[in-house]
Design goal:
The protein folds into three domains: 228 residues, Up-down Bundle (Alpha-lytic protease prodomain-like), CATH 1.20.1510; 75 residues, Cation efflux protein, cytoplasmic domain (Alpha-Beta Plaits); 112 residues, STAS domain (Transcription Regulator spoIIAA). Helix content is 63%, strand content 15%. The chain has 14 helices and ten strands. The strands form two sheets. Strands 4, 5, 6, 7, 8, 9 and 10 form a seven-stranded mixed beta sheet that branches. The chain has a three-stranded mixed beta sheet with strand order 1-2-3.
Length: 440
């Protein structure tokens, strides 16, 4: 009984966390799916017993597309309730595999419809009855009206921006509306015509259009699905834009815990985990995260941004074990100059060395060092991933009233700082002597 009560409390907590906009998104897609299920079931009956091959082809396409709509709806609900907190960042390989499977089904269905069209033209398939064709035309009209209503409901729900799933559903519904208008026109011609030749060609053209539409959908789904299965690294310019946004909002968060990014086709997926003071109101933390998200969307095209908020350090982020003084492509020397810890890396600070370097800095800070100087005289190159380690260290020291500075930047490294806007939030000095003089 206690366990059941706890589960109920968790469910109520998840439901209460959903915003009005999220409820509107879910309601718009659910009502569209419900209407599509009723119409698709009716299409099968009219197609089989009324003799309209166009309606039969349209029903096949409708059921295949419904599978995607239902899958997307389930994913959206789980994201809104926090069950898949990081799912919208990666979208999961399961979604791509499901899309590819349905795309393969669409190809098979298009081939079957194609043979049916040839059979109609050759006279091997009987024409629909006048009553059956009339029913098909009326059902087509109902389908068109349903698509108009569903499209308008989703359009209204997406006015506030909408999630990536809702935007995808709105695009699919727009294309579906156009398709239903064309199919409706051919079925109306077949229903009102008394000429068997016109009826034959109207049914054949409508069916061929549905087959072609299915092929186009299948190709698009396979193109995007295969691309998503083969993720690519986000280019450096986009990484710089992420860093620039983090620098602009440096005062808005208390910790930078993690940045992940990937590119799938034209879409860029970015996940940023930020830490906030535990005393900060959740609403204020959400507002700051949304402000950062808006900046990133202005900086990066086709970006799907996910910002995770944590009031305490992420488990596993603290350094553990012995840290090697040497990593691939970089050596690090440390020395103490009075009360200042001077850290001098040699080589490259990029994606392959950034993690180890960040753990080294974190270990020093957790060990009580609050006055740190990074001497970059022998640093030959720094990437966006390397720059973010400095941002994270600066934030950790800021929380402990520490001092943090950098000196000896080479021209290419200094340029990377300026492009990311880090020169405005981290103190930079020409050499070690000038930097040490600034520590009080």
């Amino acid at each position: 009984m206690a366990k059941s009560s706890t589960l109920s409390e968790v469910h109520r907590a998840r439901e209460s966390s959903i915003t009005a906009d999220q409820h509107a998104e879910e309601r718009s897609i659910f009502l569209a799916i419900l209407a599509d299920c009723v119409i698709a079931a009716a299409m099968v009956q009219v197609g089989l017993f009324g003799g309209s091959f166009t309606m039969l082809a349209e029903s096949l396409r409708a059921w295949l597309m419904l599978a995607i709509e239902i899958f997307s709806f389930v994913v959206m609900r789980r994201i809104h309730r926090g069950v898949l907190s990081g799912f919208e960042f990666g979208h999961g390989k399961l979604e791509q595999l499901a899309s590819l499977s349905i795309a393969a089904g669409m190809f098979g269905g298009a081939v079957w419809i194609g043979f049916g069209v040839l059979d109609i033209i050759a006279g091997g398939r009987p024409l629909g009855t006048p009553f059956g064709l009339a029913l098909a035309a009326m059902l087509g009209a109902v389908n068109t009206c349903t698509n108009v209503i569903a499209w308008d409901t989703m359009r209204r729900a997406a006015r506030s921006g909408g999630s990536i799933i809702l935007r995808a559903q709105l695009r699919a519904r727009s294309v579906k509306l156009f398709s239903s208008l064309f199919v409706q026109a051919t079925m109306t011609v077949a229903a009102v015509s008394l000429n068997d030749v016109i009826v034959t060609w109207a049914d054949a053209i409508g069916s061929a259009f549905v087959a072609g539409f299915m092929v186009i959908n299948a190709v698009e789904m396979m193109r995007s699905g295969l691309t998503d299965l083969l993720d690519r690294t986000v280019e450096e310019e986009t990484q710089i834009a992420v860093n620039r946004a983090l620098a602009w909002h440096f005062k808005d968060y208390d910790r930078l815990d993690r940045v992940r990014s990937r590119r799938a086709g034209e879409q860029v997926f970015i996940e940023i985990a930020l830490g906030f003071d535990g005393n900060l109101a959740l609403g204020e933390a959400d507002r700051r995260a949304e402000t950062l998200k808006a900046t990133l969307n202005e900086e990066i095209r086709h970006a799907d941004i996910s910002i995770l908020i944590s009031p305490s350090p992420i488990a596993g982020s603290a350094p553990s074990g012995e840290i090697s003084p040497r990593t691939a492509g970089m050596q690090v020397q440390e020395s103490k100059k009075g009360t200042v810890l001077v850290v001098a890396p040699r080589g490259r600070l990029d994606a392959s060395t950034a993690g180890e370097f960040q753990r080294r800095l974190s270990a020093s800070i957790d060990g009580g060092e609050t006055r740190i100087l990074l001497d970059f005289s022998d640093l030959t190159n720094i990437s966006s991933a390397g720059l973010r380690t400095l941002l994270a260290a600066a934030k950790r020291l800021q929380g402990r009233n520490g001092q943090f500075a950098i000196c000896g930047l080479r021209e290419n490294v200094a340029s990377a700082f300026k492009r990311s806007g880090f020169h405005e939030i981290i103190k930079i000095f020409p050499d070690e002597s000038a930097a040490l003089a600034s520590y009080i």
